[in-house]
Every structure is written in structure tokens, then in C-alpha cells.
Design goal:
Multidrug efflux transporter AcrB transmembrane fold, two-stranded parallel sheet, about 70% helix
Length: about 300
């Protein structure tokens, strides 16, 4: 299916303004992370307990927060979750057994809200040691994935292709982390899974374009490097648009009807599809042009002048 007939978009010509926008977005991400003192991590990484409760009649959320603090849970986070009568209470590790934490919370909450019926819907607890191990494992998983990608692309193409792909992937993960920081959303294990999915999706999109670039380099030797890059991206444009649109529709459907449990995962995936498509066309491929013009072309000119 052809959505675009013989497109002639100058992707390489837009390299400087696009890079400027991306750099500004990365700076905004860094500032947001500094102001928030890092990403907001879920109990998967920090340790603690999450309690999901249903309360009837529905209390005011400020009243519920006051009741939680009066129960002795200072620093607990209370938020609406799904239905209007359901709430999520996130509190740090207590000086008690993990299995008793939720029961202690429920008991004290009922004592402070005697006129309400409180039902325990879900409880999750993670110890601080396990949380630290999961945090290290998540960071190692992302770092190892990026390293293996460089090695794979280096062998399949050449080294500069691997560097271009990694720059695009780091760009995607950084901006996704930035949107989570700006919206004050939690980074959980499911969100880390979304990050790895984004890396895989963006890489697949980039490799398709790189394959077409390699083919056109052999077929169109008389054209300039920039023209070959532009031609290759334009030839893949219909395929890229169709793949991205269908994937985005699935991720958006998950976000809209999948329920609050997978909201953050689906949001990260939806945003990642958009930013991954953008980076494969406007970041990864133009980086090849920048590398060629500043390293390979200069070496050729220097060799010719000797």
C-alpha cells in the first residue's frame, strides 16, 4: 500500500533545525530530572507497599490523605485509581513484616474512618534490598541492550551505522524518560519493559532505512551522499508510516481501554512509537551524513591533496 507517491522530502536539509529541537528537548528533560531529583520510581525499585482500596461512600481525597497521615503513615502518597471510589495508597517500608504492612494500614484506616466501608482490593510489597536489585538489573538491561545493538549493527553494516543508531535510541529513551518526569509519572518494571520495547521498535525502523541506504549506495554511485540518504528515507516512507500508524493505534487502544494498571506502560509505548519513528528519519540517518561530511569526506580530500 502506497500512502505517498514519489515523495521528495528533504530530510537531510532539516537536520540542523531538527537537531536543535531535539537538543532543547533533551535539556528540558535534564532540567526536569534535576528539579524532581531524578525520575519518580515505583516501589518496584524503592521498596515499600501499595494498597488499592475501595471506599463507600466516596470520601474527599484530601480527607483520605489526612486520615492516612493521622494513621501514622507520614509520606504516603494517595491518588485516585480507576473508578471514583477506588484509591491507591503508596507508603514506604514500615518497621514490620512485609505481609503485615497492608493489614496494619487497613486496620488503622478503618479506625480513622469509622463511618466508611473500606475494602482491600490489592496489595503489593517490595523490600528495599529487592528494590535495589531490581533497579540495578533494569539499568543493566538497558545498557546491555544498547551495547549489543552497537555490536550487531557494526557487523551487519559498518561502525558509523551503529553509532548513528545508538544516538537515535538514546534520544528516544531520554525523551520518553523526560515526558514521564514532566508529567510526574512513575517508572515501574512495566515501564522499563516499555522502554526496551521502544528500543526494539525504533531499531527495527532504523535498520529498514539503513538497508535501503546500503542498497542505494551501490546502485546510485553518481549521486551525492545526502541525495542517497534522502532518496532512501523517502522510498521507505510509506512502509514507515503504515507500520507506525498501526502500532500506535494498538498502543493507544491499550491506553484508552486497558485499565489503569497498564496506563503508564501503554502511554510510554504510544509516545515511544511516535518518537522512534521521528528519530529513525530525522536523527539516525542525518547522523550518517554528518559523519560522512566531517570525517570520511575530509579524509578523502586530504588524501587527494597529498
Amino acid at each position: 500500500m502506497e500512502f505517498f507517491r514519489d515523495p521528495k522530502i528533504n530530510f537531510v536539509g532539516a537536520m540542523k533545525p531538527v537537531f536543535t529541537i531535539s537538543i532543547l528537548l533533551v535539556i528540558v528533560t535534564i532540567l526536569s530530572l534535576v528539579l524532581h531529583r531524578g525520575p519518580r520510581l515505583s516501589i518496584d525499585f524503592t521498596g515499600g507497599t501499595i494498597v488499592q482500596v475501595r471506599i463507600a461512600p466516596v470520601p474527599d481525597i484530601a480527607q483520605l490523605r489526612a486520615a492516612v497521615e493521622n494513621a501514622g503513615f507520614v509520606g504516603a502518597q494517595v491518588q485516585e485509581f480507576g473508578a471514583e471510589d477506588e484509591f491507591l495508597i503508596n507508603f514506604p517500608q514500615m518497621q514490620t513484616d512485609l505481609l503485615e504492612a497492608a493489614q496494619v494500614m487497613m486496620q488503622r484506616l478503618r479506625e480513622n474512618l469509622p463511618d466508611y466501608q473500606i475494602e482491600l482490593r490489592r496489595e503489593e510489597s517490595v523490600g528495599p534490598k529487592v528494590g535495589g536489585e531490581l533497579r540495578t538489573a533494569a539499568a543493566n538491561a538497558i545498557a546491555l541492550a544498547l551495547l549489543l545493538i552497537v555490536v550487531y549493527i557494526w557487523f551487519r553494516f559498518v561502525f558509523r551505522y551503529g553509532i548513528a543508531a545508538i544516538i537515535a535510541l538514546i534520544h528516544d529513551v531520554t525523551l520518553t524518560l523526560g515526558i514521564f518526569s514532566l508529567l510526574d509519572l512513575e517508572i515501574s518494571l512495566s515501564v522499563i519493559a516499555a522502554f526496551l520495547t521502544i528500543i526494539g521498535y525504533s531499531l527495527n525502523d532504523t535498520i529498514v532505512i539503513f538497508d535501503r541506504i546500503r542498497e542505494n549506495m551501490k546502485l546510485r554511485r553518481k549521486e551525492s551522499y545526502s541525495d542517497v540518504i534522502n532518496r532512501s528515507i523517502n522510498e521507505c516512507l510509506s512502509r514507515t508510516f503504515l507500520t507506525s500508524l498501526t502500532t500506535f493505534c494498538v498502543a493507544l487502544t491499550l491506553y484508552l481501554v486497558g485499565g489503569p494498571v497498564i496506563h503508564d506502560f501503554a502511554f510510554a509505548l504510544s509516545f515511544g512509537v511516535v518518537i522512534g519513528t521521528y528519530s529513525s528519519m530525522f536523527i539516525a540517518s542525518p547522523v550518517l551524513v554528518f559523519w560522512y561530511e566531517h570525517f570520511i569526506a575530509e579524509k578523502k580530500r586530504a588524501g587527494a591533496s597529498m
